């Protein structure tokens, strides 16, 4: 228990300082999120699709991405393949869950980690620091995971003033509304919807896309170049 507590503190500091470090973010989520994971698992058990997911335990892997590459761009899977390809992301690169002892809860943690990039696509949320923090706020509204709240609360200090203001004035209010309005994101059968038209799927799952910050007339930074799809 002491080891996990120390790990939580160390990883928490690192995750706030480096919000793109999936290994640090994941470690904090695993060591601080037991109660939230249990609530998520219980919600999934009460939902027919959630129960089926817990029974089958599907995985979002490189094989899943390969299937999506064969789909048209306007589909959910096609948009996901484009999103991953532009960033050179691979699903198998995500760090495994290591600090959750219960097998079923470990799968819930794995599932929430693996569908993260699908949420980026559905909500048109960029992979900039702003976008990641806004999606963390939405994730907290949906799952109650402490790490999501921790990142959303403290990491904005890394942003320049204009980006921080847009985050607090536009992105965070959107995240709260969108998280409350959307279907339970842990109880969705993403794998069987990859051939569905993306706009149709957003309507079906009550998805509200993220607001876009107006571009300023200056040279782009690496962060500004990011797009959601």
From TrEMBL:
One of its GO terms (molecular function) is zinc ion binding. Transmembrane segments: none annotated. It comes from the Eukaryota. This is Ubiquinone biosynthesis protein COQ4 homolog, mitochondrial. The lineage of its organism: Eukaryota, Viridiplantae, Chlorophyta, Mamiellophyceae, Mamiellales. Lyase that catalyzes the C1-decarboxylation of 4-hydroxy-3-methoxy-5-(all-trans-polyprenyl)benzoic acid into 2-methoxy-6-(all-trans-polyprenyl)phenol during ubiquinone biosynthesis. It is found in: Mitochondrion inner membrane. Belongs to the COQ4 family.
């Amino acid at each position: 228990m002491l080891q996990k507590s120390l790990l939580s503190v160390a990883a928490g500091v690192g995750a706030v300082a480096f919000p793109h470090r999936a290994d640090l973010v994941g470690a904090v989520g695993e060591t601080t999120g037991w109660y939230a994971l249990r609530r998520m698992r219980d919600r999934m058990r009460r939902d027919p699709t959630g129960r089926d997911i817990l029974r089958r335990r599907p995985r979002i892997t490189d094989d899943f991405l390969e299937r999506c590459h064969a789909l048209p761009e306007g589909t959910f899977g096609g948009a996901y393949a484009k999103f991953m390809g532009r960033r050179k992301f691979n699903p198998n690169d995500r760090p495994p869950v290591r600090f959750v002892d219960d097998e079923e809860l470990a799968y819930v943690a794995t599932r929430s980690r693996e569908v993260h990039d699908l949420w980026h696509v559905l909500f048109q949320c960029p992979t900039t620091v702003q976008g990641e923090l806004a999606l963390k706020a939405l994730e907290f509204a949906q799952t109650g995971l402490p790490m999501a709240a921790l990142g959303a609360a403290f990491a904005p200090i890394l942003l320049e003033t204009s980006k921080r203001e847009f985050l607090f004035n536009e992105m965070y209010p959107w995240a709260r509304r969108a998280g409350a309005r959307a279907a339970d994101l842990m109880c969705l059968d993403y794998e069987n919807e990859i051939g569905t038209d993306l706009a149709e799927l957003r309507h079906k799952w009550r998805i509200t896309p993220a607001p876009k910050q107006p571009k300023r007339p200056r040279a782009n930074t690496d962060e500004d170049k990011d797009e959601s799809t």
